[in-house]
Amino acid sequence: MDLIEQFSAGLADRIAEAAGFTVGIQTEKRQASGLLWRPGVVIASEQALPDDVDTLRVVHAGQTVKATLAGRDPSTNVAVLKLEAPVESALPAAAAPLRVGNLTVLVGADSTGHPTARLAMVHALGGAWQSMAGGRIDALIRLDTRLGADEGGPVLSLAGGLIGMSTSGPRRRTIVIPTATLARVVEPLLAEGRIARGWLGVGLQPVRIPDSLHQTTERETGLMVVGMAGGGPAETAGMLPGDIVLDIDATPVGGFRALFAELGADRIGQTAVLRLLRAGAIQTIDVTIAARPAQ
Question: Positive or negative CA dihedral for 6, 12, 16, 22?
């Protein structure tokens, strides 16, 4: 057997192994894939599931098992399902650190629960980042492929290590939700059904600071208050519509990602110092960060 045949056979072996912890997820609207995190618990791409879903069908190796939605977190794009009957599985160890150019295997499942596969190269890597919905993703991993019904399945290194879960990001770019992120959110989702996030109780719009106020504010952009929740933290603290938020605890917040980074679950109940621009003058207000109400 030559090297190419050996490589092909090795890939097929990896996919056959991954079939044990990969499932198909059937909804009324589309087919997706999922990752058997442990017996009875499936992780899936949150955006691949309908908004109003309660019960789903999970297919594994030709067998169908009913599942209920235990929790979902749009900010990290992770949903957790509970199976009515456990399916035994064993996840591989976490993959070794990646390099740009490494090859990966994306595994999904078809309508019968049998495996599908894609080979993809690591296109780009980066550090931890904040999603537009406010979730912290532990690493940026972008792949050079597009997803279909395999979205939500496991992504493996060629050595068989688990890199994370596949999902479609902005502009349909394929990204991986790393194993570390999955491990951090799955238990809270099982226990509470959602991930708590800090909340100020305001609607905000990015704005540019007028040139004449750059020296006063030491900022070129900010977030203008365009709406307020009655009785929310911001209203209680005395914020007003039209205020422009410049900093939170001395950290500039010229955009939503910077703001969300300051409103993690660990900040709930804490006091934040907001530096504002109001009617051309600088003010500071202490706001007690609350938990975002359930939708």
Answer: positive
Q: What is the pLDDT of residues 23-71, one digit of tens each?
A: 999 887 789 999 999 999 999 999 999 887 777 899 998 899 999 999 9
Taking only the tens place, the pLDDT of each residue in 69-91 is 999 999 999 999 999 998 888 89
CATH architecture assigned to 198-291: Roll (2.30)
SS3 (DSSP) at 9? helix
Read off the DSSP letter of residue 13.
Answer: H
CATH class of 3-192: mainly beta
Task: List, by residue range, all CATH 2.30.42.10 domains of the chain.
Answer: 198-291
Q: What does the chain come to in residues?
A: 295
Q: β-strands 202-208, 221-228: how paired? A: antiparallel
**Is 103 in contact with 119 (CB distance < 8 Å)?**
yes
Do 202 and 227 touch, CB atoms closer than 8 A?
yes
Cut 0.90: pTM above it: no
Alpha-carbon distance 139 to 125, whole Å?
8
